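As a warm-up, study this chain.
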Amino acid sequence: MAQYRVGRLEQEIQREVTDILLKRVRDPRVEGVTVTGVEVTGDLQEATVYYSILSDKASSAEKTAQGLKKATGLIRSELGSRLSIYKTPELFFERDKSVQYGSRIDELLNDLHRQDHE
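Now compare it with the structure written out below.
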């Protein structure tokens, strides 16, 4: 039962954070951020929000991280008014490296495929 509630809450937080980032956060540093997943602790006190950005540059990744850190208070308060839970979890943003990793593997496979046809 508890695991089902955590999973449902993770989906709801992901949906709402995506909506808040699109409609409420005006910081240009967080434009183009895609929320890829949310992990909530068993006691529902903390939530790690995984995100990805299109740019591979370290400078834009750093700017995005700063923008998200600055917007965390707004996002959390907005989340608190949208979700019907007793206590809004503390939010932590972490860059999702799996998207980058997947595109790198794609690139390597395409190179191998191209070499086979030469």
